[in-house]
Design brief:
The complex is a heterodimer. Chain A is an alpha/beta fold. Helices cover 36% and strands 29% of the residues of chain A. Chain A starts with a strand and ends with a helix. In chain B, helix 1 crosses helix 6 and helix 7 runs parallel beside helix 12. Chain B contains 12 helices and no strands. Chain B is 73% helix and 0% strand. By secondary structure, chain B is mainly α. Chain B is globular and about 60 Å long. Chain B starts with a helix and ends in a 6-residue tail after the last helix. Chain B has one domain. Classes of the chains: A alpha/beta, B mainly alpha. Chains A and B meet through strand 5 and helix 4 of A and helix 1 and helix 5 of B.
Chain lengths: 324, 263
């Protein structure tokens, strides 16, 4: 039996439209028009136990809405879902004790108190016994290297530190399923990498089923074997990351920061230009050629100040899927 | 149950973080009481009587009233619940195996005990200092029953606030409603003037509502204007049960509309 099973799941939101301005606000006091938005449209997928699946899509694609339905926060408009054999939106305690959700933009820790107080609260909420709590806490703090901040007020922690504490707090009860909503959002590169390394290791060691949303391609490529892409509420890709990359993202993006402006002619010699700004050239370079291409760039006559290699943006991948 | 105890304890601790606001309240409360003290003294000095209240009784009423405002009435339940629904923080609770109502109540209890611990000292001092001008019972049984009644009143107040907060499921923002409800209930509780100074028909109407048990009844007991009877405990207790089931019903209705925005 799959850990997560989703069948024809849909969510329609109701919202009110308001034109800008005070007069329109006053008008709104008396008459309002209801509008509907189909945030998620009849999606289907299933995830096996122990899988680490990436859920990718641009902002507003329906990622978070899907996670909210799977975690039982909201009830879908139609369709079915089962997680660990439970219907999430019934919010049965037996289900709630077996999963956790971490949201990058939301704080679940007690703001004015040190994280340890929130951990102790979760210990009681999830009825974790003393020994298991201590073991998990020791293991997680060691893995995430946060021992020295457990007794500092949450509001005084950095974003990266706080996210690490959020992760600890939601893993203390050994969830079988973990939903992660943009866990690396707003973090610097080093902090992002730390979180990623941790998740990879955690998934390998504990065989926890993880569904991770992100709009950073980088997150998904580093962590997941399988990827699901959602766009305007519809699934447009479900399959291996490797295949996706081969087919729709065969090139990486190499950004070259320059000390002075260069002409398009000058820049063109070194590879296919993706974007050209006054002192920044963005090349699109096939994965297999990255090493030699960057070497070539660095040894060229271009006044290179810095170089940065990354994945292409998710919007571009989606465009490629539609164009093919 | 222990999880709710920890929520209460954490809230107690979180309140201790901001010490300055505690100091400010110490000073401002004393000033407000002095203001009332001189106001009533000057009103009564022309020899007039207000209703059945003597000067002593009037000063006592407002002294205990201030204490209740600072303790059992001092909760932001409607605002907290309304905001948590509006900005999606309710999500945190829906994910976990514990009740949101239990969370909201234990948080308020944490604050109540913080306020009792801190402000009781101030009121012990005020009562001792003004003992010749007030009429407050120091009999152990009466004081105990006063706290019991005030505690029941606290629950009525919390439940009403919680219900107002839940209206955010439908209204989005509860500001207007919360303000109106707060003013009307405070009036009906006896929070502006003693209820026995109001016209008779208003009191008959008020007898069918739970509000007088929040402020007026506990004060009347402590200032020796009412004799203790079991009715004073049974009636508010029934109201609490009734309001609890109403709150449960409304929550279950509202949660179906909830969209968990802001996350």
């Amino acid at each position: 039996m799959p850990a997560i099973l989703v069948k024809n799941l849909s969510k329609k939101y109701e919202y009110l439209k308001k034109e800008p301005g005070v007069m329109n606000s006053l008008k709104n006091l008396f008459s309002r028009k209801k509008h509907f938005k189909n945030a998620v449209k009849k999606i289907n997928f299933s995830i096996e136990e122990g899988e680490l699946v990436g859920f990718l899509g641009p902002n507003g694609a329906g990622k978070t809405t899907t996670l909210k339905m799977l975690s039982g926060i909201i009830t879908p408009s139609s369709g079915q879902a089962e997680v660990l054999g439970h219907v999430p939106w019934k919010r049965e305690p037996t289900y709630q004790k077996q999963f956790a959700m971490v949201m990058g933009q939301k704080n679940q820790l007690w703001w004015d108190l040190p994280p340890m107080e929130s951990f102790l609260l979760n210990k009681e909420i999830y009825e974790v016994d003393k020994r298991r709590f201590q073991e998990n806490l020791d293991r997680l703090t060691k893995l995430l290297k946060v021992k020295d901040i457990l007794h500092k007020q949450v509001r005084q922690l950095s974003l990266g530190e706080r996210m690490k504490c959020e992760l600890i707090s939601s893993l203390l009860h050994d969830p079988k399923v973990l939903f992660l909503d943009e866990p690396t959002i707003g973090m610097d590169v080093v902090a992002q990498k730390n979180i990623r390394d941790f998740l990879l290791k955690y998934n390998q060691e504990r065989k926890t089923t993880i569904l991770l949303t992100s709009h950073y391609m980088e997150d998904i490529v580093r962590l997941c074997k399988r990827i699901i892409i959602i766009h305007h509420g519809t699934l447009i890709y479900d399959g291996e990351v490797e295949r996706l990359i081969k087919k729709y993202a065969p090139a990486k993006v190499v950004k070259v920061y320059l000390d002075r402006e260069v002409t398009r002619e000058e820049a063109k010699k070194l590879g296919e230009i993706y974007e050209l700004e006054p002192s920044l050239i963005t090349y699109s370079i096939p994965r297999k050629n990255i090493k030699e291409a960057t070497a070539k760039i660095l040894s060229s006559s271009l006044p290179v100040r810095d170089i940065d290699i990354g994945e292409i943006r998710v919007e571009k991948i989606i465009r490629n899927i539609f164009n093919s | 149950m222990k999880k709710y105890y920890i929520v209460a304890k954490n809230n107690f601790q979180a309140n201790l973080v901001y010490r300055f606001s505690t100091y400010v309240i110490f000073v401002s409360e004393s000033l407000v009481f002095l203001f009332f003290f001189y106001l009533w003294s000057s009103i009564y000095s022309s020899g007039q009587q207000i209703g059945s209240y003597s000067l002593r009784e009037m000063i006592s009423y407002y002294l205990v009233l201030q204490f209740l405002f600072l303790t059992t009435k001092n909760n932001g339940v409607s605002w907290e619940v309304g905001e948590e629904i509006r900005n999606g923080e309710l999500n945190n609770n829906l994910l976990k195996p514990y009740s949101y109502f239990g969370h909201a109540v234990s948080r308020s209890i944490g604050r109540l005990f913080f306020c009792l611990a801190v402000y009781s000292l101030l009121y012990v001092l005020l009562i001792a200092f003004f003992r010749n001008y007030t009429n407050i019972s120091l009999d152990a049984f009466t004081v105990f029953m006063f706290f019991l009644l005030a505690f029941l009143g606290f629950f009525i107040n919390i439940l009403v606030g919680y219900l107002v907060g839940l209206s955010a499921f439908w209204l989005g923002i509860i500001g207007g409603l919360s303000y109106a409800v707060m003013n009307i209930t405070t009036f009906l509780e006896g929070g502006f003037v003693p209820l026995d100074l109001l016209p008779r028909y208003l009191n008959i109407f008020n007898n069918f509502l739970p509000f007088k048990y929040v402020i007026f009844v506990p004060i009347s007991l402590l200032t020796k204007r009412t004799e203790f009877s079991w009715e004073l405990i049974v009636v508010p207790a029934c109201w609490i049960v009734l309001l609890y089931f109403l709150a449960k019903f409304i929550f279950n209705r509202g949660i179906k509309k909830y969209e968990g925005f802001g996350a």
